[in-house]
């Protein structure tokens, strides 16, 4: 297992991060514990959850397991989406952030969280108000670091600017969606994170299973079970890319899931790549990525299987401009 520096925090995290969203739903508690044991045995020291996963059951499962392992684990959770049904139990208000931290700590049976992500931009709350709440939780010792997830690059920069202006603890990491079929993060998010020294922990690296080829073969999964994923991957271009990608992986004798992970991991701005699984078979298949180290040339070959997003200014690169003589 390789370990990477987590932005400017000084922390070392495993190059892959165990996601727990299946715990308490597709994976019962016994399987979830087996997955956490297997991850720890492999050297994975970075676990990711959220306060709303399976209405809190996910954090409770992690909490019943983590006790003797707490000092070995970098533990992340997230706050934004509705929890509990209360009128104010959502968003990034000071009230919800501080209450959600307390609830997560109780469910996870821990005194602190290493990272709490603001899970989505909240257009109804000034970002400095949300950061003040996170600052309070950090000063109280209940949270070590703040991160952001599902923010646009300009929103992350607004958070960084507000933290500097108001002398608040700044976000140290970014969790974007990123895969061979969802490459928007390449346009501004990944360059911004690299420029600002933020750790990057992409999720959906295998595209909710699209890049495994299982849907092409008539299999089932999140696209059939969850409307959010059905809409997220509705564009037929994604299946076309998946077809080319799966064929390429099989020609090389590789697991498509492992190659999809390895492609994300090989981006120089990526710190640790999040992965989830329902059982140990999926765990072992996906983590064959640890045996793959894509060179820039090999990564470029895989990248060519999908349309690259346009540059942020929608103009050619400086190198291309120079090559044609300006």
Short description:
This protein is 40% helix and 13% strand.
Describe it.
The protein has helices spanning about 30-40, 55-65, 95-110, 125-140, 155-165, 190-195, 220-225, 225-230, 235-250, 255-265, 280-285, 295-305, 320-325, and strands spanning about 5, 10-15, 15-20, 45-50, 75-80, 115-120, 145-150, 170-175, 200, 275. With about 325 residues, it is an alpha/beta fold. The protein has a domain at about 5-175: TIM Barrel (Alpha-Beta Barrel), CATH 3.20.20.100. Strands 9-8-7-6-5-4-3-10 form an 8-stranded parallel beta sheet. It has a two-stranded antiparallel sheet with strand order 1-2. The longest helix has 16 residues, at about 235-250.
Write the layout of secondary structure elements.
Blueprint: E1 3-5, E2 12-14, E3 16-19, H1 29-42, E4 46-48, H2 57-66, E5 74-79, H3 94-108, E6 113-118, H4 127-139, E7 143-149, H5 153-165, E8 171-175, H6 189-196, E9 199-200, H7 222-225, H8 227-232, H9 236-251, H10 256-265, E10 273-275, H11 280-286, H12 296-303, H13 318-323
Parallel strand pairs: 3-4, 3-10, 4-5, 5-6, 6-7, 7-8, 8-9
Antiparallel strand pairs: 1-2
Helix pairs in contact: 2-3, 3-4
Distinctive features:
13 helices, alpha/beta, TIM Barrel, globular, 326 residues, two-stranded antiparallel ribbon, 10 strands, 40% helix, 8-stranded parallel beta sheet
């Amino acid at each position: 297992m390789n370990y990477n520096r987590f932005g400017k925090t000084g922390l070392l995290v495993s190059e892959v991060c165990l996601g727990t969203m299946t715990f308490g739903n597709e994976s019962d508690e016994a399987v979830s514990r087996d997955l956490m044991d297997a991850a720890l045995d492999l050297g994975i020291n970075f676990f990711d959850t959220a306060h709303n996963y399976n209405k809190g059951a996910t954090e409770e499962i992690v909490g019943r397991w983590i006790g003797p392992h707490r000092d070995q684990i970098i533990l992340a959770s997230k706050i934004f989406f509705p929890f509990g049904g209360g009128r104010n139990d959502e968003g990034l208000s000071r009230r919800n952030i501080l209450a959600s931290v307390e609830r997560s700590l109780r469910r996870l049976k821990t005194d602190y969280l290493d990272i709490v992500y603001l899970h989505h931009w909240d257009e109804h709350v000034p970002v400095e108000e949300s950061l003040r709440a996170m600052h309070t939780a950090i000063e109280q010792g209940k949270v070590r670091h703040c991160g952001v997830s599902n923010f646009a690059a300009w929103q992350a920069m607004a958070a960084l600017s507000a933290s500097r202006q108001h002398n608040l603890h700044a976000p140290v990491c970014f969790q974007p969606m990123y895969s061979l079929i969802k490459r928007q993060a390449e346009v501004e998010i990944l360059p911004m994170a690299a420029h600002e020294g933020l750790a990057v922990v992409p999720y959906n690296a295998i595209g909710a299973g699209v890049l495994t080829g299982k849907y092409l073969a008539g299999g089932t999964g999140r696209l059939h079970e969850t409307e959010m994923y059905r809409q997220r991957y509705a564009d037929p271009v994604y299946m076309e890319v998946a077809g080319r990608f799966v064929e390429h992986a099989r020609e090389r004798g590789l697991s498509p899931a492992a190659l999809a992970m390895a492609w994300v991991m090989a981006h120089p701005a990526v710190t640790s790549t999040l992965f989830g699984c329902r059982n140990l078979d999926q765990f072992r298949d996906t983590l064959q990525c640890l045996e793959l180290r894509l060179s820039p040339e090999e990564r470029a070959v895989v990248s060519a299987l999908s349309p690259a997003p346009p540059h942020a200014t929608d103009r050619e690169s400086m190198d291309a401009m120079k090559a044609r003589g300006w």
